[in-house]
Amino acid sequence: MIFPEQMTFEQWGEVGERFGEAARRFSWAVGDWLVHGQTTFKGRISAEAFEEAARNTGLDKQTVLKIATVCRRIPINERIEGLSFEHHQAIATLLPKPESRKSWLGFVDKGKSVPSLKLLRLSISCFPDAPRVITSKEYDARNRKTGSDNYLI
Prior knowledge:
The protein is mainly alpha-helical.
């Protein structure tokens, strides 16, 4: 991409903001497009269609399938404005039951701050049916062996 040499710092910043907005909307747009195709053209959206979608978007087939799964599991009216696609993806993929997904989405929406993606995933895995963020004390108490402590001696 080539930018004009006379671009001001403010203009440069505005372009970055537009890129950010496009990036935040991209996965939702692709996923909703795929879900619409599956709903509208039942029986015609096959594995070949996902391969075609991958070619059209420049994404690999696995990514296209993951994006479609998130959009299918969390419909537009249940999505939380301002929550990243990746946060929605964690909720959609880690929670198989729709009631649990709605419960976690409501919990995150009402929270004072959004937990990091890593903390959200960990909290969901520890408390799938009772949404809450794991505390540092609970985290430490898990007694998980990692690194050199995990090797048999």
